[in-house]
Amino acid sequence: QRKDAIRGCTSLWRGEESYANVEKPWPSARGRTNFCWFDLSEGWSEDTTPKAVPVDHVDWHFNYYENEWAALPFSEQQKHRSLGTSSRPRDELIAEAMLSFSNGVRDLEELETGIRTYWRDFRAVTLRKMVKDQSEEEIAELLETISKIAGLAVRAKHLVTKSLPALVSGSSVESVTMSQEQASCLLAYAFFCTVLPRPNFNHFSFHLWHTQRAPIYVEKMKFILHYFRTVVDEMPRGTLTFSRQAYREQVNEASFCAWTEPLSELYATPEGLIEEMEGCLQVDFANEYIGGGVTNTGAVQEEIRFMCCPEMFVSMLLCDHMDYRDAILIQGAQQYSAYEGYASSLRHVPMELRRDEPRDQFGRARSYLVAIDAHCYQNKASQYKSRFITRELIKAYAGFMPTEGQDNVRPIATGNWGCGVFNGDKELKSLIQLIAASKAGRPMIYVTFQDERFADQLDEVAEVLKAFKVKTGQLFNLLVQFVEERQPKQGVFDFVRASVQAGL
Length: 504
Ligand code: AR6
Description:
- By secondary structure, the chain is of the alpha/beta class.
- The chain has helices spanning 2-14, 16-22, 76-79, 90-102, 108-116, 125-132, 136-154, 156-159, 180-191, 207-211, 216-233, 253-257, 301-308, 314-318, 386-400, 426-439, 452-467, 472-485, 492-501, and strands spanning 33-36, 173-179, 239-246, 266-269, 281-286, 326-331, 337-340, 347-350, 368-373, 412-415, 444-447.
- Mean pLDDT is 91; it is low at 16-23.
- Ligand AR6 binds next to strand 5 and helix 13.
């Protein structure tokens, strides 16, 4: 029954025909810039790979510290930072190493010597661990893959012909669209540890995977190598859009209490995973620095999603730290790998890329993600304060709010946002997300991660709210009352149900 209800709710958004008609027009009419890294003058077509613009020359703004540009490895300041065994300009050393690797990598020592010219701490610890149990053919295949990854980096002069604006908090650039090929080229630079850390950004580099000993790095390396093998085998022709939105209205508790939207349909399910909810806007349980611990040992919801859909990594190069009003949207990131296990038991499961994935008129596959970071509570008890309810509601609504002037309200697929590593209370967070989804006019699918009991409890409380026609503002008010009047051990659902049944 639950499955049927979810299929019914998402049917419009899964339908291929309706898909092209409901997507965000591009560029948007909002007055902010929508940057496209490739030539869209003749539209996108399935048969050709998008070409970078400008096509005939390179036009980079080099200033790496200027906030509005992404820190590409060839930027001016990076050039003169000598972090390797050679004091020659860094960009030259990187270009030289990439060219040499692309012509073949004999062994891992050659890889180490090449990378150390621009980054002296490099050691291929994880790759060495991997080759230990491999046959000669497997080792040769691995070295060939590494060489082909370098080939992607070498293609930068055709693919990275213009600087890339950063999507920093409050900037006038709303979105950046690039081809999957351009994304793969950037990922190749991350693989070879060429991008330097930048204040306020997560570090777009896989150097810890290469150089540190934690067992998870072997697994992470398998995900990324599988991605590279897939794209070098046949480059996907699609595109991706990264955008940033913020809910900047002046709001306070009183204004939330005045919200009058009816509550949306809520579908709780213990089965499936967020990433399986096709056609929905799927929530990434993010860190304020998007990607969280993905380039170190982190391996929970956000990191796993990045590992399966590596094009998401580009958001770390583009987006700085999110403040409490910010959300990051990623459209078109395809899934290259599946997984088993979770956290330290995470295992890579290879899968075939869906090459026939339907795309919109701009070439983006049907994958919609929104990254929102919950508040992290060191101590679980500290979350029961009205200012935290307000903070989480602003954040969730920043992610769920429809893009201006559009009818783009696909259902939200979410779950225990902020309730794993970040220690949140599921009952409280689920209702906060329901208020945000309702304000945005979106149905909400809530995946309880195999917790049948919680799915039943959530269904039950949603039934009561529906029966008594509770509005968004009223529910918010109840949550605030809950934290103010809370009895020890009383749960949010019990309080809300009792209050509603007693006549609010
Ligand atoms: N589908 C549905 N539910 C899931 C899935 C999934 N694929 N994976 C996990 N869950 P967590 P947080 C459930 O801890 O607390 C990262 O490092 C499962 O019940 O990832 O918001 C970020 O970068 C799990 O316990 O999210 C941040 O730094 C719960 O969702 C930080 O973790 C919460 O998953 C965010 O922590």
